[in-house]
Design goal:
This protein has 8 helices and no strands. It has about 170 residues and is mainly alpha-helical.
Length: about 170
């Protein structure tokens, strides 16, 4: 499941990099879908349900944050009738920031799940940077944000592939 998450994210990142003009229009759909799929696959991986300790609960919170952020992004066409686009970007940025910080903390608390917590910490850091970018970059500079998000997405996906490889080689 971890490798599948990485492959999906690399494919989406490369498409966004190769077609930046279309990617700005498509980013709501793709980004929301990726957040939703990442959270759902995180729940499906069983990490949440396997341990009932604090680390397992944090993983549940992280995945739920990703799912809620994905739903907000995918429903943004409807939600912009009620909320401003800036407000929705702030909500998604906060959820991504929380998801990243929770991933970092859970990797430190539940060290039994990881041979090394560093890949999970890097992944969490990338999510947190994405959240901060959404919080502090003006929406008018969508092309710059697209380049940042694409680079972060590919780095995050590579960290997922590394984690999957480490899980496979240590098993």
């Amino acid at each position: 499941m971890t490798a599948l998450r990485g492959i999906v994210m690399i494919a989406a990142g490369l498409l966004a990099f190769l077609y930046p003009a279309e990617a700005v229009k498509f980013v709501l759909l793709a980004g929301g879908g990726l957040l939703l799929v990442d959270g759902a696959l995180g729940l499906a991986s069983g990490e949440t349900w396997a341990s009932r300790n604090a680390g397992g609960q944090l993983v549940l919170i992280r995945n739920l944050c990703c799912i809620v952020a994905g739903v907000i992004v995918l429903a943004s066409g409807l939600l912009t009738n009620v909320f401003s686009l800036s407000f929705l970007a702030t909500c998604v940025g906060l959820l991504a920031l929380v998801a990243g910080l929770v991933e970092i903390v859970s990797s430190l608390i539940d060290r039994d799940r990881y041979a090394s917590p560093l890949p999970a910490m890097v992944s969490g850091g990338l999510y947190a940077i994405f959240g901060l970018a959404l919080l502090f970059m003006p929406l008018s500079s969508a092309a710059t944000l697209m380049r940042i998000v694409t680079a972060l997405l590919i780095l995050y996906a590579l960290s997922l592939l590394y984690r999957a490889w480490r899980i496979r080689t240590t098993a």
